[in-house]
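Response to reviewer comment R2.3. The reviewers asked that we include at least one raw input/output pair. We reproduce the pair for Beta/gamma crystallin 'Greek key' domain-containing protein here without editing.
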Amino acid sequence: MGKIIFYEGRNFQGRHWECGSDCMDTFRHFNCCNSIRVSGGHWVAYEKPNYMGYQYIMGPGEYPDYHCWMGFNNCVRSCQMFPPYRGSYRMRIYNRPDMMGQSMEFMDDCPNVYDRFRFRDIYSCNIMEGYWIFYEHPNYRGRQYFLRPGEYRACGDWGCFNPMVGSFRRMRTM
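Raw output as returned:
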């Protein structure tokens, strides 16, 4: 079973809280989060309650300060564990909202969207199989967006305000 431990101090110091399931609001458990240990499962931590705000995707390992999980600050206010996935991966991206415009189907990672798709913006997508992570910049940098199977008719549907996606990868949980 999965477990994530949040620490108020850097390098796993100070008050801590262990979590083994989804939590919509972590505020009553800790004030800030400067380090995290993931001892099982894969997790998405969110900057705000109710699974809103910046998203940080983490697999098993140690994150001694918030820069190690690509955090923008020390605020984590909700978290979700996602189940292991061992199937195939497939998605279709579009350069217009509502699954319109030019499209391209992917089954593998893409370190630079513009090089492969010839568009800088992804306005909508259909995740047909697997879990995917969109990154704001090429080479898996910047803000992260976790996508489950389903239709995302506008970039706001995956928590983004700007359709610019620089790279994406499959979230492999093996």
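The mean pLDDT is 93. The radius of gyration is 16 Å. Further pairs are available on request from the corresponding author.
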